[in-house]
Amino acid sequence: MLPENITAIVSRNERWCGEAASEPYEAGWAREAIFFVRALKQPVGPPAKAWVEISPDGMHWLREGTEFELPGERDGLAAARLTRFGNWLRIAARFENGAECTVLVTLHLKA
Amino acid sequence: MKSQESLQPDSLTEAMRLALLRADPALSRFDPLPRILSFDNFARGHCGWSQLVGNYEDDLDTMLPGYAQHTSAMLSTLGHWDAGSHGGMDSSYALKIATRPVAGARNVAIKRHTFRKRGPIRFEMYFTFKPEATELRLSETDVRSIGFLFDLQGGDGDASGDRVMPHLRFLNALDGQHLQKWQYKPETERIIPIGTDNKTISHYHLAPEGWLDLPGGAQRLCYNEIPTKVNWTYLCFDFDLESMTALGLRCNDRSFDLSGFESIRIPAMKNLWCMLNFCLFAETDVAKRAFLYVDSICISGDF
Predict the structure, then answer these.
(1) Whose CA is closest to B288, among A73, A93, A75, A24?
(2) Contact yes or no for A25 and B76 at CB 8 A
(3) Residue B160's Cα: distance from chain center in Å?
(4) DSSP letters of A35-85?
(5) pLDDT exceeding 70 applies to what percent of chain A?
(6) Closest chain B C-alpha to A59 CA, distance in angstroms
(7) Which of A19, A54, B178, B257 is 20 to 30 Å from the Cα of A28, by its Cα?
(8) Class of domain B31-301 (CATH, top level)
């Protein structure tokens, strides 16, 4: 049997500003993961800093260590590659005052 | 070639079919009709249960808000903060449909097929539901409901090709009241054109309005004693694609009379012939995620 892989859309057309995060996703079966973030509209203000978070329970979160910058242009892409993450995954971002980005967050998982 | 009549199962072949089913540890807990369309065990992946995405044209902003909130279902071991992974019935995994942590939020997973023959179909599953365990409280009224629906349309050559959408939900709680009853939905919301090309429409058939109590549909399910203990529950829904009527609902030890049940019926749509879709959904009553977990699903037909 071929190894499992899945494409999950965890945030679609969400306008992120201030403190933002994707909905928690369980990925314990996967050996590798990639988060993609695409800006669906022209972002406002400076690109936000984003990072990957892991969790023991889907409720309490801490930084995994991977950081990246969200796209600065419409249809721009950002990505974060992961190989050791336990079960729970999400990305979080912090925007400066007045900044925003409408995001499509895609999570690719592979066993 | 034998005639169709001579191929009908007789009592011996039916007895052999049942014997084979009951000796199979994976299928023995189901009562499938003669043909199994799909058997979903979530240790083998998502098995085609994907996110129900709303219709749109040109811009995702045209998607109705009810659909915009949906996210992808996931594979879960039911990992709990206090007791670790609960696991499924005979594997580590279950399909998990999670709402957002907003009162009234809803999420829907869908499996899309078409049918070969209009006749009886049976949908069986083992499921459970819980709120996210963010509080050290029983939280038994935090999940508003879990439910399912079919989305069906006759063939392009059929005289009557209405789109028919039987909906059923177990209304666990509403506005904090622990109600524990089955409901159905006979009407959808207004059909709204999407975009400018006159090709796409949308209607949010899962809007909270319009649910009616199934007569005799009160049922108390096994919820257990804290938010992190779950028990698997059996459900079976029978529907006839020929007459487009519901035939029966069973949940654990109870059978419900569906003589008062009605499906949503709307005019046929031009691209949905022979559609055979199945949806599962969860709704939360409070600002806390609600989780519908499904261990396994067997969809079968008599054809």
Answers:
(1) A24
(2) no
(3) 25
(4) EEEEESS--BSSPPEEEEEEESSSSS-EEEEEEEEPPSSTT-EEEEEES--
(5) 100
(6) 7
(7) A19
(8) mainly beta
How far does the CA of residue B103 sit from the closest CA of chain A (Å)? 15
**Spatial CA neighbour of B71 closest among B54, B58, B85:** B54
* Local mean pLDDT, 10-residue blocks, chain B (303 residues): 57 94 96 97 96 93 93 98 96 98 98 97 98 97 98 91 95 98 92 82 90 98 95 98 97 97 94 97 98 98 94
How many Å apart are CA B85 and CA B92, to the nearest integer? 8
The angle at the Cα of B231, spanning B299 to B229, to the nearest 5 degrees, equals 140
Whole-angstrom distance, CA of residue B214 vs CA of residue B216: 6
Q: Contact at 8 Å (CB) between B118 and B241?
A: yes
Alpha carbon distance B52, B289 (integer Å): 18
Contact B81 A57 (CB under 8 A): yes
Right CATH for A5-110 from 3.40.50.720, 3.40.50.620, 1.10.540.10, 2.60.120.380 = 2.60.120.380
ipTM of the complex: 0.97
